[in-house]
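Possible regression after last week's pipeline update?

I re-ran a chain I had predicted before the update to compare outputs. Posting the input and the new output here so someone can diff against the archived version. Not blocking, just want to make sure nothing changed silently.
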Amino acid sequence: MGTKERQVRERTKVRQAILDAARDLFVKQGFEHVSIRKIAERIEYSPAAIYSYFPSKDDIFFALAEEGFRLLCGDFLAEPTVLPAGVEPLKKIRHIVWHFYDFSVQYPEHFALMFTGPHRAAPRDAVPSCFRCSSR
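New output (post-update):
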């Protein structure tokens, strides 16, 4: 394995450690009580090192929310009978609601982060295509 591959692997590992620590802190303490400094302390890195991966706390939060939506979307699209053609609308709605409920039970931390936190719109490209209503 070359130096470049090792560096990429290490950078990916640190990025994931930042996200894991941030997810835990956001869920336990709430968005407003989490700081870059607390995340850095949790993974034993300096705050400056965190900023080399994410420009702000909001960017960390949105990366976590995006991760959650990818999981939700991936699970939803992986189901063989996602929304079969010809099924009445009420059954489709029930199916979607149950899917959201199952996801919230299986991934409670992701679910909490996806629907709480900073109340500003995520960048459009952060929302998986299976949740976009139109191509505005």
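Follow-up from reviewer: compared with the archived run. The chain has a mean pLDDT of 82. Marking as no regression found.
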